[in-house]
Amino acid sequence: MSVKTIVAGNWKMHKTAADTAAFLDAFLPKTGSLPESIEIVVAPPFVSIPTASVRLRDTRVHLGAQTMHWELEGAFTGEISAPMLREFGVSHVIVGHSERRAYCNETDRTVHLKVRTALEQGLTPIVAVGETLEERNAGETDRRVIEQTRAALDGVRADQLFRLVIAYEPIWAIGTGRNCDPHEADRVMATIRGCRDGLGDTPILYGGSMTADNVAAYMQQRNVNGGLVGGASLDPDGFAALIANAVSS
Ligand code: PGA
Fold it and tell me: Which atom of ligand 1 is nearest to the CA of 233?
């Protein structure tokens, strides 16, 4: 079985519902000419999900969310649950993005709880792991990504591992224009793949200043199965160009 190639756009706190409609009206007609082997995901802000859901029905583009709560319902003001997402056809959910770890108290434990719930609820978690610049400079990159990956996947059954996605996102590379050297990203991603049995068929994405110009260099690497893309996913032409260049060689 070959590992799936996935390109996921993480829009973060960008695009109103009207902006989302305009993006998809421009982007969807382009998807017919993009490589069929690539699974395309867009993850708009929650309030734009209903608009995206209508536009994406019967298209090849999958709908993602940027986070969710691990409980299915309850007294969690401001939170969104897996069943609420599924009602709108959401299939993927980003879990443990470094911005949520840094600003919203996401921890290895809550990431783990969210991964379990997402899998139980039939959502594909895209689990983000990655080191800070301080950790990299201190030679702690491998230790940190192994710790994050093992914690996130604790208790996940072997037969569930192919249903999840891991994204290696060095924090210092996110939104900085300073992307990680593709060979070094591949080395870390090999470490992630090897840190637990059964990750051989799990797609591992690179994230961190990925662009239409540098995506091909990542896709040439053995352990790279696609990208989690922030800034370069916001423009329909640019995102389509990135996906066109993401064919694995
Ligand atoms: P970036 O963001 O592509 O803008 O660096 C990636 C991410 O945060 O997922």
Answer: 3
pLDDT tens for each residue of 96-118: 999 999 999 999 999 999 999 99
Active site residue 97: yes
State the residue range of the domain holding 242.
5-92+105-248
Question: What is the model's pTM?
Answer: 0.97
100 domain residue, yes or no: no
Residue tagged active-site, from 97, 99, 106, 131:
97
Does residue 60 lie in a domain region? yes
Give the pocket of ligand 1 (CB within 6 Å).
Answer: 10, 169, 174-175, 207-210, 228-232
Domain count, the chain: 1
69 catalytically annotated: no
Look at residue 98 and tell me if it is in a domain.
Answer: no
How does DSSP assign the chain, residue by residue?
A: -PPPEEEEEE--S---HHHHHHHHHHHHHHHTTS-TTEEEEEE--GGGHHHHHHHHTTSSEEEEES---SSSSSS-TT---HHHHHTTTEEEEEES-HHHHHHS---HHHHHHHHHHHHHTT-EEEEEE---HHHHHTT-HHHHHHHHHHHHHTT--GGGGGG-EEEE--GGGTTTS-PPPHHHHHHHHHHHHHTSTT-TTS-EEEESS--TTTHHHHHTSTT--EEEESGGGSSHHHHHHHHHT----
